[in-house]
Every structure is written in C-alpha cells, then in structure tokens.
Amino acid sequence: MRLAKPERYLALPPELAVLELTHLDMETMSNQTLRIIDANLNRIGEGLRVLEEIARLLLDDAALSQQLKDIRHEMVKVDLSLEQQFLQARNSEGDVGINLEVSGEEKYKEIPETVVANARRVQEALRVMEELAKNPGVPLESDKFKWARFNLYTIEKELFSKLMRRGKAQSE
C-alpha cells in the first residue's frame, strides 16, 4: 500500500520527475565526463538512502521516508546500455581521490551530524550535475538538478528538526 504524501512536502513536478538518460544521449561524451556523472549519480543515491533509512527506521516517519525514496528512485532512470557505459568508464582503482581524507570525516558523534553530512553530500553532487549540465554537449537539464537540490534543502530542514525534537524529548 502506497501512502499519500502530506501537502507540506514538495512533490516531484511531473516535468522534473525523471531524468531519463539513454546511451544514445551520452555516446559522444568522454570517459572523464561519464566518470563525473557516474560518481555523482552514485553519491546522490547513496546519500539519499542514508537519509531515507534515518527517516524510516529511526524516526518512523513514513511520509518523509516515502518522499526520500521517491526522489531516489524517480530522479534518475538510466537504461542498461548507459549503465554499461558508466561501468566501462569507471576507474575506481585509478581514482586519485580514493585516499584523500578530511579531518573529522571519519566519524560522526551524533545522528544529526550524519544527516547534515549526507544532505550536504547529495546537495553538492546535485550542484556538480547542475553545473556539468550547463556545458555544451552534455545532454542533461540543469534545472532538474537545481530543483532537486532546493527540494533537498527543505527535506534536510524537516529531517533535522524532527531529530532534534526527538533528542530533546528523550533527554527530558
């Protein structure tokens, strides 16, 4: 059974609901550009999944969980041929950023910090995609990524607020 979304949550507008990509759209792109797209699509999906799990399993918030799941599933649909192109362009073992670290990145102290870190991760990846889409020869629509980024700002605020209220209630 699918739950109805409360009015206060932003729904995906039909014209922005799916970023459908096909291998034909991407045939002329370099492996480096495909790697950027692949890495950022992965980052978006992974970060949204973390937020979804917190909303679902920690807060028991069905509406917020559903919204995050919808965004994760509906925002990008990639056909099998394009997925194959991404995998062929992927170079995980040769990635110069694989061992780069930032102090404080290794461990979060509290769940709200995890929410902020993952929301930022998704927002940054969406911004990368938005900017990349503005380049000639990249068949992506920057407005779709911009809309998703601004939608996520609202979701992050709601999720963080609920966690803080939960924490405050538990400490009383």
How would you summarize this macromolecular structure in one to three sentences?
With 172 residues, the protein is mainly α.
Describe the structure.
The protein is mainly alpha-helical and 172 residues long. It has one domain. The chain has 6 helices and 2 strands, in the order βαααβααα. The chain has helices spanning 23-26, 31-58, 62-74, 80-89, 111-133, 142-171, and strands at residues 19-21, 76-78. The chain has a two-stranded parallel ribbon. The longest helix is centred in the C-terminal third of the chain and has 30 residues, at 142-171. The chain is globular, with a radius of gyration of 17 Å. Mean pLDDT is 80; it is low at 1-10 and 14-18.
Produce the secondary structure layout.
Blueprint: E1 19-21, H1 23-26, H2 31-58, H3 62-74, E2 76-78, H4 80-89, H5 111-133, H6 142-171
Parallel strand pairs: 1-2
Helix pairs in contact: 2-3, 2-4, 2-5, 5-6
Total number of beta strands: 2
Number of domains: 1
- Number of distinct helices: 6
Helix and strand sequence: EHHHEHHH
Please give the largest β-sheet.
2 strands, parallel
Classify the beta-strand content into a percent band.
under 5%
Instruction: Give the termini separation.
Output: 36 Å
Q: What percentage of residues falls in helices of 4 or more residues?
A: 55-70%
What structural category do the secondary elements indicate? mainly alpha
Low-confidence stretches: 1-10, 14-18
Rounded radius of gyration (Å): 17 Å
Q: Largest sheet, order of strands side by side?
A: 1-2
What overall form do the CA principal axes indicate? globular
Task: Give the mean pLDDT.
Answer: 80
